[in-house]
Amino acid sequence: MAPVIISTKRATKRKGKDKVPSARKKLKTEHRTLDELPWKTVQRPQEAGIGGDDGILELEEIEGVDVIYEDTEGGRVDGLQTFIFSATLSKDLQKNVKKRSRPKSAGKYKKRDNQPASTLDDLLLRLDFRDPDPEIIDLSPAGGVVSTLQESRIECLSADKDVYLYYFFLRHPGKSLVFLSSIDGIRRLMPLLELLNVKAFPLHSQLEQRQRLKNLDRFTNTPNSVLLATDIAARGLDIPAVDHVIHYQIPRSADAYVHRNGRTARAMRKGFSLLMCAPDEKRMVRALLGNLERQEDEIQEISVELSMLDKLKYRVQLARKIETSQHKVKKANFDKNWMKEAAEAMEIELDSDYLSDDDEDKPSNRKRKAKDAKNSALKAELKHLLSQPLMARGVSAKYITSGSRPIVDDLLTGSNHETMLGLKKQDAGNSLLAPKKKKKRAVKEDFAEWDGIATEE
Known about the structure:
Blueprint (H helix, E strand, L loop, with lengths): L3 E2 L6 E3 L2 E3 L3 H8 L1 E2 L13 E5 L2 H4 L7 H4 L12 E5 L24 H4 L5 H8 L22 E7 L5 H11 L4 E4 L3 H13 L4 E4 L5 H13 L4 E4 L14 E4 L6 H8 L9 E7 L4 H10 L8 E2 L4 H40 L6 H4 L7 H25 L2 E2 L16 H6 L6 E2 L36
Parallel strand pairs: 5-6, 7-12, 7-13, 8-10, 8-11, 9-10, 11-12, 14-15
Antiparallel strand pairs: 1-4, 2-3
């Protein structure tokens, strides 16, 4: 029997989100032996390597997992060794932080409470390691992240996340991988970033495999580009030279957070991770860090030039108006084309007035032309704003030597920011704010009651 290779990184589409398929579907689609694969890579068939096991064991429908491990049972292959590899082999890291945890109770949740205490205990019950005391080698870094990764966070309103994201792309150029929780979020951000001249590429489960590989190749070969992805890109991808990982939306579990961060700071390279946290997401962030045995204040905030945000906010608002108008036009054209195709399929003739667009006196055409003119004016205004450099507060637009923030020295040394005048080039890791010192509570001292001036006898 050939050793078994398991891949647990597929996902299926369901209501605009990337979902992990059930165990039965996974067995049908991903259970492969070496004889069925188009390549031969394992030189020692006496060893079975199973990677990403936590992705299988976190599933609720786990009846079919025994089929995956059937080749590891004793007596099947002489001298067979079993290896289990995982970056997050812990059930604590797989808890969904978006759901409130229930306390253990007698009888009501008996089935749940009687589950194995850890993923390792679950594996010991399911696998025959041939050794009653198998070796456990734990190389996990403290806190679940490597030492070369710098973590940071931005606290902002959900409605302002687009502005802060755009600010980060301009302030800290590089290859950025942005993680979102849904495909709908990617579809909303893509046209917005394109209007703002940000080179962005999507990656999610509804794209064909050819398009996914094409977008990955474009992201790899394009400097200062952005990859908008769901959690299907959190595991198994080795994209070279990813400078930043941005959690636009809070991951559902701590292991997803660890695997997302694992796309940067690879092979001892430096990396940067940014967590965008809205007020209604603070509880989830505390739960996520609690599962990693960390405190919220361990992740420092990143500094933001507030004088730039108002200017960028107006750009984003213009881009939203343009995108909304274009989306309405596309939807109207789609509905009209669908009506034509449906009429042709049923051999029905549509009214000539419905199909005609030549009559300039029709109210619908006049409205359409007025909207097109307004949309063209918005595009021209946005194009003009994008061509202008951003100036920090205190920089003189007329004389570079005047103003409260002179920029002559930075221009001469080449340390000035290319798109934000008045700011210096700075890596994201050097923009972290110093942690706030906790105020010590004043200790009340007990004073003895005054008995007056003592008199000599």
